[in-house]
Amino acid sequence: MIMKIAYTILADTLKDKLINKGFEKSDALECARLFAQATLDGVNSHGVNRFVLFMSNIDKGIIDIQSKPLKIKSFNALEQWDGQLGSGPNNASFAMTRAMTLADQYGISCVALRNTNHWMRGGNYGLLAAEAGYMSICWSNTMPNMPAWGGNMPRIGNNPLIFSMPGNPHPILLDMSMSLFSYGKMESYQRQDKKLPYPGGFNKAGEMTDDPQSIIESMLPISIGYWKGSGLSIMLDLFAAILSEGRSTGEVGQDDEESGLSQVFICLSPDKFLSKGKMHDIVNEILSYTKKSSTIDPDAEVRYPSERSFRIRAKQLEEGIEVHDQVWQEILALG
Amino acid sequence: MIMKIAYTILADTLKDKLINKGFEKSDALECARLFAQATLDGVNSHGVNRFVLFMSNIDKGIIDIQSKPLKIKSFNALEQWDGQLGSGPNNASFAMTRAMTLADQYGISCVALRNTNHWMRGGNYGLLAAEAGYMSICWSNTMPNMPAWGGNMPRIGNNPLIFSMPGNPHPILLDMSMSLFSYGKMESYQRQDKKLPYPGGFNKAGEMTDDPQSIIESMLPISIGYWKGSGLSIMLDLFAAILSEGRSTGEVGQDDEESGLSQVFICLSPDKFLSKGKMHDIVNEILSYTKKSSTIDPDAEVRYPSERSFRIRAKQLEEGIEVHDQVWQEILALG
């Protein structure tokens, strides 16, 4: 059953649980904010639904909440940090904040982070930058969870890639992984006994299929644009592993648990060139042109990235955030 | 009929034609090199096959070969240049070279370029950086040539996106546009009276189809990953138009000819952190892991980005470059 929870109650509850777990207060506040914001924007899969697993990964020693990122190398606008297997959301928030400081100084910056843990919703770090007036590009590698194009064994990561920028009334955010459908999305179709809207992977016989069950069993989802997303996933892994001198997708896959990831945070400071007003004018020109299109389905509309999630945010801020009651009970039952 | 031409003859011939057209010698050399290299790597569509059109766009005044890029604004590692409607390949080569100089100084850099012309093969600028030891990310906007997801009118560009990095024995390059199939590719299937290997767009009735003819007529190719590539195309256009304060895809589409484009060149200098040897080790670990996979088609292999084009390069360096004799005759007939 779905229940509705006010944002402040959600964020406060998560914060208290994190403090009970041993987080420093400021870390708990930021980590709870990131989990709550993902849920507020409708990304429950990387918000509230993942919180209990996140906490159990602390108990298992996969996440070391005492660890802080450590600067390893730096050259002006380019820095390399070690996440020391700390909390993924906190490390990523730290890295993007550091990239913002460097972008102030240099106009553009890059912070590469190794040995970190799952950052949950990557879009959160794009929003962090965009809300402060920056443009950002960031990505993470993952464990191997897709075949490279043509292959029939998991070899590449779905490596989420984020682009963000300021906008008015809200930032513009693209948060996309390299797989056409996430496992979470496929499971959701499967639970409803539905086919995917488009073929989303291969079955064990190597045939492309829209049956989520077959793809979950074969572990062969397809990448966006077939060979193109496969290539992009490989490039993102190469960049992340090299710039951070951290682990590659293949190396991450040698462990049972997904940990020790490599991430890249690029930040740009457009306010060195344009006023906020000029920037918003350009954004609005592009988005209104894009939306001024008739549609194949007359009841549909053309949407730009994050348009839907900010609508969900507005609705949930007013009416409360939709959470499965079982998920909520499990969170309340945490120590 | 296909003929074979040695690289040096191809590059020299193009250079002579450019000099005859009024190019300065150094500009002619670089422009000819870029057209010839695209062709050498098998990208004839943005190499030799496009040369006559390029020359006629000079005659039409769309490309002003006397123009040089002009620096408009700069803030340390971030610069904004005006291409002054000069030669697109020369402008892009200049911008990436400038980004390389800035990356030397700052570790990462960004050169945004407005009012430029079609850069032909975007991968050329990725190779320029990678061969000199840099990692790069660059992209261009284009005229509106695809619908945004859900729409049935061209509203977004296929906005080619390039990632490149050094490798051994050759650089690693991803050069991908946001459309699943280019018009050139669809026309090639159409000429052979073949269907596309996957649905590549919508027909006029709004149905997804693998019939190239229907997509060419409707002008509704699909983007990679459907809604995902559509979103990425929009973000690339936003970044390019804002950072360069140049024209957006929609604004470019107001003219009959595709000109006055906006481009972004991001360059990173990994040698501030890693030796070339260490970098090559990481590249080779990732690529060999990726390729070590069985395949759905037992006669196929898993390939990494640019693997195929460097094979074509090696073959054509040895055996000569494949060029349609009609294309070659038209080039020879130029003034």
Topology of this structure?
Two copies of one chain form a homodimer.
Chain A: E1 2-5, H1 7-21, H2 25-40, H3 51-59, E2 70-75, E3 78-82, H4 88-106, E4 108-116, H5 123-131, E5 135-140, E6 146-147, E7 154-156, E8 161-165, E9 172-176, H6 183-191, E10 201-202, E11 208-209, H7 212-218, H8 227-244, H9 249-252, E12 261-268, H10 276-291, H11 307-319, E13 321-324, H12 325-332
Parallel strand pairs in A: 3-4
Antiparallel strand pairs in A: 1-13, 2-3, 4-12, 5-8, 5-12, 6-7, 8-9, 10-11
Helix pairs in contact in A: 1-2, 4-5, 6-7
Tally of individual domains of chain A: 4
Query: Any idea what the CATH superfamily of the largest domain in chain A is called?
Result: Malate/L-lactate/L-sulpholactate dehydrogenase, NADPH binding domain
Class per helix and strand makeup of chain A:
alpha+beta
CATH secondary-structure class of the largest domain in chain A: Alpha Beta
Strand order of the largest sheet of chain A: 2-3-4-12-5-8-9
What does this protein structure show overall?
2 copies of one chain form a homodimer. Chain A is an alpha+beta fold and about 325 residues long. Chain A has 4 domains: about 1-60 and about 310-335, Malate/L-lactate/L-sulpholactate dehydrogenase, four-helix barrel (Hypothetical Oxidoreductase Yiak, Chain: A, domain 1), CATH 1.10.1530; about 65-175 and about 225-270, Ribosomal Protein S8, Chain: A, domain 1, CATH 3.30.1370.60; about 180-220, Wheat Germ Agglutinin (Isolectin 2), domain 1 (2-Layer Sandwich); about 275-305. Helix content of chain A is about 45%, strand content about 20%. The first copy, chain A, is built from 12 helices and 13 strands. Chain A has helices spanning about 5-20, 25-40, 50-60, 90-105, 125-130, 185-190, 210-220, 225-245, 250, 275-290, 305-320, 325-330; strands at about 1-5, 70-75, 80, 110-115, 135-140, 145, 155, 160-165, 170-175, 200, 210, 260-270, 320-325. In chain A, the strands form 4 sheets. In chain A, strands 2-3-4-12-5-8-9 form a 7-stranded mixed beta sheet, sandwiched between helices. A two-stranded antiparallel sheet of chain A has the order 1-13. In chain A, helix 4 (about 90-105) links the parallel strand 3 (about 80) and strand 4. In chain A, helix 1 runs antiparallel to helix 2 and helix 4 packs parallel to helix 5 (about 125-130). The longest helix of chain A has 19 residues, at about 90-105. Chain A is globular, with a radius of gyration of 20 Å. The model of chain A has no long low-confidence stretch (mean pLDDT about 95).
